[in-house]
Amino acid sequence: MSNRAIIVIDLQNEYWPGGNLPLEGIDAAAANAARVIAHGRENGDLIVNIRHEMPGAPVFVPGSVGVEINKSVAPAQGEPVITKNFPNSFRETSLKDLLDEKGIGEVIVVGAMSHMCVDATVRAANDFGYTTTTIHDACATRELEFNGATVPAAHVQTAMMSALAFFYGEVISTDAFIAR
C-alpha cells in the first residue's frame, strides 16, 4: 500500500438534480472523481469516503436518500466511510487517526462543495502536515450570493482553487494527476 490517500468528500445525492443543493457540473466532477478513485485503487492508495450528515437541518438529513454517496463514486467493499457533521472532514471524526495509522503522508482531495467542505478539509490537511493535492475538475460548487451580488459557480470555483493553490497545496486536473 502507498502512503497516499484519496479523500472523496461528500459526493452525495443531495448535490445532484433532485437533491436539495444541486451543484453546477456535478456529473462531470463525479466522473473525474471516479477516474481518480479508480487510479488510486490500481495504485494501492487508501480510498477514504466522507459523508456529511446534518441532524436537524433541512439538508443532509440522516437516513435520507440525499445523504447516500452517489452510485457513480460508490465505495468499494472494505473502503472506510467516515460520517462528519462539519465542513472540515477532520473535525470530530476519525479521519486523522485513520490516516496516521495507515502511515499516510499525502492526500489527494476530490468532492463537494469546493467553497465549503473541500476548502475546509484541504486547509486542515495542510495544517496537519499532509502534502495536499486538490483535483480541481473533480470538485464542484454552486453560485453564491453576497451583499446583493450573485457570484457564478465558475467564479466561485476559480477563486477557491486559486486560493488553495496559493498556499495549501497543489491544484491540478484529473488528466495531470493520472499522467504521473
From TrEMBL:
CDD domains: nicotinamidase_related (cd01014)
Pfam families: Isochorismatase
GO molecular function annotation: hydrolase activity
Residue intervals of the Isochorismatase-like domain: 5-146
Keywords linked to the UniProt accession: Hydrolase
InterPro entries: Isochorismatase-like_dom (IPR000868), Isochorismatase-like_hydrls (IPR050272), Isochorismatase-like_sf (IPR036380)
SUPFAM superfamilies in the record: Isochorismatase-like hydrolases
The keyword rRNA-binding belongs to this UniProt entry's keyword annotation: no
PANTHER family for this protein: ISOCHORISMATASE HYDROLASE, PEROXYUREIDOACRYLATE/UREIDOACRYLATE AMIDOHYDROLASE-RELATED
Protein name as annotated: Isochorismatase-like domain-containing protein
Lineage: Bacteria, Pseudomonadati, Pseudomonadota, Alphaproteobacteria, Rhodobacterales
